[in-house]
Amino acid sequence: MNTPRIIQALEEYPVIAAVREEKMLKTAVESKAGVIFLLQADIFNLQQRVDTVVRAKKSVLIHLDFVDGLGRDNRAIDYIKEVIRPQGIISTRSSQIKYAREIGLFGIQRFFLLDSLSYETTVKTAHAAQPDMIEIMPGLMPGMIRRITAQLSVHVIAGGLVETKQEVMEILAAGALAVSTGKSELWEL
């Protein structure tokens, strides 16, 4: 099987530009990051933001949970695939990830690790939902990253609260394929 373009880009450069504000989009597309997460958008600016990233020849994933004005059903995912055309989506919802994968979108499921129960739920849900990748938050838990990567065959991204080069290096050394961060200075490591 061919390695998806997103995974290839992350293997080459493991820092993901996580963009919340439009003013950071230009910095992100000019950075070394080959993958950009759009973490904030609405139905009026989503197409333009995705097109900006695609023109820069970078992979773009839309965090579906944070797109204002779109429903949270399968028709919204159909619309995103057919009209907006990103490489994939990010969501905390297993049903959205499963459906996105069924129709050919790359799916990253985001999990928040708060305690041992959320850790166990993450592992069980990832096995059941079979996302293309998972993102765990907060990312500053190398021990948890090691445990999760040992239990799952899916690639792991770690994000949230990552602010230094040292933290990025620790996360990658713990087994994460990539680190997502909104800190633009880390997009140039």
Would you mind describing this structure in some detail?
The protein is of the alpha/beta class. It has a single domain (5-188), classed as Aldolase class I (TIM Barrel, Alpha-Beta Barrel), CATH 3.20.20. 42% of the residues lie in helices and 23% in strands. The protein has eight helices and ten strands. It has helices spanning 5-12, 22-30, 46-55, 74-84, 94-102, 116-129, 142-151, 165-173; strands spanning 15-19, 35-38, 41-42, 59-63, 67-68, 88-91, 106-112, 133-137, 155-159, 178-181. The longest helix has 14 residues, at 116-129. The protein is globular and about 40 Å long.
CATH architecture name: Alpha-Beta Barrel
What strand order characterises the main sheet?
1-2-4-6-7-8-9-10
H/I helix tally: 8
How large, in whole angstroms, is the Cα Rg? Answer: 15 Å
Largest sheet: 8 strands, parallel, barrel
Q: Name the helicity range.
A: 40-55%
CATH homologous superfamily heading:
Aldolase class I
What is the CATH topology?
A: TIM Barrel
- Given this structure, which CATH class is correct? Alpha Beta
How many individual domains?
A: 1
* Overall geometric form: globular
Beta-strand fraction estimate: 15-25%
Distance between the termini: 30 Å
Classification by helices and strands? alpha/beta
Mean pLDDT: 96
For the secondary structure, the number of strands is: 10
Low-confidence residue ranges? none
